[in-house]
Amino acid sequence: MVKLRRFFVVLALLCVATVANAIELKGVASVNVTSDTAASAKSMAFGEATRQIIVDVLRQYVDVDALKEVVLNAKNSELSGLVLASSIDGEQTSDTTYAARISMTIDAEAARVWLDEKEIKHWLPSDADQNMFTVSARLSNGLYDWGQLNQIANTENLDLGTKNIFGNVVTLQMPSTKRGAFTIGVRGAGWKYADKDGVLHIWKQ
Fold this sequence. Notes:
about 40% helix, 8 strands, five-stranded mixed β-sheet, three-stranded antiparallel β-sheet
């Protein structure tokens, strides 16, 4: 029992936490701006919408207070580089005003790089992380089961990316292209498995 506990402690120390779910950063802002000219009002409206949408769609992945401060002081040209696509609905203009419902998609990879450059703590996954799948492995016989999983991984030429550990359950991350081969490997080694919400659960009875 002591040896098994020590195994899980060591494994926990090697744990690297990552995020593997694909994300879509889309937002909408309704703006109504008055300026000297219609062109100036439209430019200001797009700048306002961009700032609002960036904060809205990234707030769940970042230190929001730090993000708001950086967005407030950033130039429009800098923030527009984070916009992947945009569309306009209900546009209304006059000689000095511009109103519309503006939708934008933020480029997740560009946003991740930008946040890193601004030294804002965040939890946005990289493009590489998006192509991974998650395995939840229950190790009833710690050292033996872990050794068997490593043997299967070596056979399939993949790394067991440790995501986190809770009790005797280890969460792993692997390339999506290897999911089928890994599933066949654990089944052949006597493991039970089930797919739940995209996560491959495996265990020994």
